[in-house]
Amino acid sequence: MQTVSYYNSPIGKILLASNEQGLIGLWLDTDRYYGDNLDKEYSEGGNKYLASAKKWLDIYFQGKEPDFTPQLHLIGTDFQKRVSTSLKIYV
């Protein structure tokens, strides 16, 4: 199940998305492909991956360099999956 949450940043509202394995997406509300890899059904809320991403963003927007990387789950778009399979590179 995918979970989404919003983060109000100095550069605009950011949509964060995760699943049970990590952060799967981050979009500004003006992004061309806003939420492009979200399932049709998802829940709004929080979890440890979204909390970690928000903490990272808090540190970053304070002008500091975060000393950690939130857990990521790189899933790719349908196109990226087709290309990576044909090139024998796996996402």
CATH architecture: 2-Layer Sandwich
Number of helices: 2
The class by helix and strand makeup works out as alpha+beta
Order of helices and strands: EEEEHH
Beta strand count:
4
* Shape field: globular
Task: Report the span from N to C terminus.
Answer: 19 Å
- Could you tell me the mean pLDDT? 89
- At the first level of CATH, the class is Alpha Beta
CATH topology: Double Stranded RNA Binding Domain
What's the Cα radius of gyration? 14 Å
Major sheet: order of its strands? 3-2-1-4
Main beta sheet strand tally, sense and closure: 4 strands, mixed
Portion of residues in helices? 25-40%
- Residue share in β-strands: 25-35%
Count of spatially separate domains: 1
Task: Describe the protein.
By secondary structure, this protein is an alpha+beta fold. It has one domain: Double Stranded RNA Binding Domain (2-Layer Sandwich), CATH 3.30.160. It is built from two helices and four strands; from the N terminus they run ββββαα. Strand 2 (12-19) and strand 3 form a beta hairpin. It starts with a strand and ends in a 5-residue tail after the last helix.
What are the salient characteristics of this protein?
26% strand, Double Stranded RNA Binding Domain, alpha+beta, four-stranded mixed beta sheet, 4 strands, 2 helices, 91 residues
